[in-house]
Automatic annotation (TrEMBL):
Belongs to the aldehyde dehydrogenase family. It comes from the Eukaryota. It comes from Panicum virgatum (Blackwell switchgrass). Transmembrane segments: none annotated. PROSITE patterns: ALDEHYDE_DEHYDR_CYS, ALDEHYDE_DEHYDR_GLU. The keyword NADP does not apply. GO terms for molecular function: aldehyde dehydrogenase [NAD(P)+] activity. Keywords: NAD, Oxidoreductase. SUPFAM superfamilies: ALDH-like. Pfam families: Aldedh. The lineage of its organism: Eukaryota, Viridiplantae, Streptophyta, Embryophyta, Tracheophyta. This is Aldehyde dehydrogenase domain-containing protein.
Length: 495
């Protein structure tokens, strides 16, 4: 249970770390090279664990295990119902370890423990159960074929799926990709981010306990240019599902094209607009805008980093937004009163501070924040800029760019003036404005009078350079399925 005086009780809490080796073919093993890498606690910068470091040789072993499990094993051959039952059992085991898993991500990524318990882990198991329930509902079609033939289509698992995920939501990202892949009957080789490898290893262990056969899930922690690149260029990997930066998404596509032309799905960066109209309830809009950029320290591809406020409420909004930012408590993520923990690592911490300096030198006005929020650890103050002329770069930190607009047409144009197109937010009481902007904005998800509402049944993915190949929804299984047409002659048909 949680206690009231979190700060004192929580300081320095580190969960026991049980799994630090690679998970290949149902076993925890050392890297072929024997190498390990450090994962650090962003609250202090201290080493949290030494984790086996996968490189090409380990990825080869992981892919071989996944290949064998796919080509010769039970997983793709058992009924969808049986696969679904095992996945449901897996979900139950994850739920039973919620507290521990939330703590693991908390220490590894600086994420709020409480949020992990009530959002990250439960949403992940909801996702897993959604696809568990879909495993026995994979249908083909009956085809009209001209002449004396009949046809039908089958949707078959594509094979070995490479899964490469980022560090901002280690648990949700794992299940976002792995759940539909496994439900479809694929086997997977997962490379968690080097900053946050711990929970993925735990999930591999729980899947085994649930009865998922060996080789179906393999986890190979390591770095992107080594382990990650070995997956994307592998001739025996049949598809790659990726979430991360646009730069790396481009590398992944190139590598897939140069090797075996494996299809890829990319969920990439964003610079998403949140548009607040004059008729909005200002307090509610301020709260939404604060959530949209400061939740999870701004380390969210879907963060509402460009906030457009209509001129009639602009001054009031700015005043209240600054107060709200100053009331957003930065501190130990294990303290239940904290709103925002540290950035994930030193590199991100320094990168965000550099963007802030850059903003100042470009002539933007800093209204609040802009500095480290503590003497140690990677904490940054909630930061708000106004008079921003160019808001194009994804900062991936707690930095809001606030801008004023006059008309609906003007703000639609500004909102779309980005190479990204992941999400957009709209705050208005007018149905006509909400409808018009929802349709005009070029983004994969639009939130009206809400923000960060994710659901397993709501497709999520980008327009433009935010990527393609959506997550969530039944359609997400298409990435892991391929269609086969079977056409049969009917020589004796009177037709
Ligand atoms: P972020 O900017 O959020 O750190 P990245 O795109 O750098 O996102 O990383 C997301 C994931 O992609 C991580 O697991 C990382 O190790 C991996 N990655 C980075 N570079 C490559 C690469 N060249 N090939 C494959 N995976 C990579």
């Amino acid at each position: 249970g949680c206690n009231g005086n979190g700060a004192a009780a929580a300081a320095g809490v580190v969960p026991e770390i049980k799994f630090t080796k690679l998970f290949i073919n149902g076993e925890f093993v050392d890297a072929v090279s024997g190498k390990t890498f450090e994962t650090r606690d962003p609250r202090t910068g201290a080493v949290l664990a030494h984790v086996a470091e996968a490189d090409k040789a380990d990825v080869d072993l992981g892919v071989k295990a996944a290949r064998d499990a796919f080509d010769h094993g039970k997983w793709p051959r058992m009924s969808g119902y049986e696969r679904g039952r095992l996945l449901s059992k897996f979900a139950d085991l994850v739920d039973q370890h919620t507290e521990e898993l939330a703590a693991l991500d908390g220490a590894d990524a600086g994420k709020l423990l409480l949020v992990g318990k009530v959002i990250d882990v439960p949403s992940a198991t909801q996702m897993l159960r959604y696809y568990a329930g879909a495993a026995d509902k994979i249908h083909g079609e009956v085809l009209r074929v001209s002449g004396k033939y009949q046809g039908y289509s089958l949707r078959e698992p594509v094979g070995v799926a490479g899964v490469i995920i980022p560090w901002n939501f280690p648990t949700m990202m794992f299940f976002l990709k792995v759940s539909p892949a496994l439900a479809a009957g694929c086997t997977v080789v997962v490379k968690p981010a080097e900053q946050t490898p711990l929970s993925a290893l735990y999930y591999a262990h729980l899947a085994k306990l649930a009865g998922v056969p060996d080789g179906v899930i393999n986890v190979v922690p390591g770095f992107g240019h080594t382990a990650g690149a070995a997956i994307t260029s592998h001739m025996d990997v049949d598809t790659v599902a990726f979430t991360g930066s646009t730069e790396v998404g481009r590398l992944i596509m190139e590598s897939a094209a140069r090797s075996n032309l494996k299809p890829v799905s990319l969920e990439l960066g964003g610079k998403s607009p949140l548009i607040i109209f004059d008729d909005a309830d200002v307090d509610m809009a301020v709260n939404l805008s604060r959530l949209a950029i400061f939740f999870n320290k701004g380390e969210i591809c879907a963060a509402g980093s460009r906030v457009y406020v209509q001129e009639g409420i602009y001054d009031e909004f700015v005043k209240k937004a600054v107060e709200a930012a100053q009331n957003w408590k930065v501190g130990d993520p294990f303290d239940v009163t904290t709103n925002m923990g540290p950035q994930v690592d030193k590199e991100q911490f320094e990168k965000v501070l550099k963007y802030i300096e850059h903003g100042k030198s470009e002539g933007a006005t800093l209204l609040t924040g802009g500095k480290p929020a503590a003497a140690k650890g990677y904490y940054i103050e909630p930061t708000i800029f106004v008079d921003v002329t160019i808001a194009q770069e994804e900062i991936f930190g707690p930095v809001m760019a606030l801008m004023k607009f006059k008309t609906v047409d003007e703000v639609i144009e500004k909102a779309n003036c980005t190479r990204y197109g992941l999400v957009a937010g709209i705050v208005t009481k007018s149905l006509d404005v909400a409808n018009r902007v929802s349709r005009a904005v070029r983004a994969g998800t639009v939130w009206v009078n809400c923000y960060f509402v994710f659901d397993p049944d709501a497709p999520f993915g980008g327009f433009k350079m935010s990527g393609f190949g959506q997550d969530q929804g039944l359609g997400a299984m298409d990435k892991f399925l391929q269609v086969k047409s079977v056409i049969t002659a009917l020589p004796d048909s009177p037709w």
